[in-house]
Design goal:
The chain has 137 residues and is α+β, with helices and mostly antiparallel strands. β2 and β3 form a beta hairpin. The mean pLDDT is 89.
């Protein structure tokens, strides 16, 4: 059985090297513009939260989550997700169920994530709603 649980701030400090390395992996794969230190700042300010992903009491990864607002209400925003390679393959449906439970508890209207990776188009849980186009100046 898979579970997710919030990591209290003192524990985030203790686990920061593990979390930071996971964030660096996400940044590298997804070509993100933010840094682990940006995440750290948001976590310290109470604007982002780290949730441990566990199977049988073994931490296999984490989620970096934010509560953001849309005009019609709160959104559970998945800023980053990292797991030990291959560890989540058979638990994807369970993870989505845990995210739905969390979103209901916080009164969210929806769950959102952003990704530059087309692999996410094959995931049945989410629907692409828009494309973002940018021009660097």
């Amino acid at each position: 059985m898979l579970k997710i649980e919030a990591i209290p701030l003192p524990e985030v400090r203790v686990a920061w090297n593990w979390i930071r390395n996971g964030l660096l992996a996400v940044i590298g794969i997804c070509r993100e513009r933010w840094s682990p230190e940006d995440a750290w700042t948001e976590i310290q300010a109470g604007n982002a939260f780290v949730w441990r992903i566990e199977t049988a009491h073994d931490a296999i990864g984490f989620l970096l989550l934010k509560r953001v607002m849309d005009p019609d209400g709160p959104v559970l925003f998945i800023w980053a997700a990292w797991c030990e390679p291959g560890s989540l393959l058979r638990h994807k449906a369970e993870l989505f169920e845990r995210l739905k439970e969390l979103s209901h508890r916080m009164g969210a209207k929806r769950i959102r994530y952003e990704s530059s990776r087309d692999e996410w188009l094959a995931v049945d849980y989410f629907t692409p709603v828009r494309r973002v186009f940018e021009y660097e100046v």
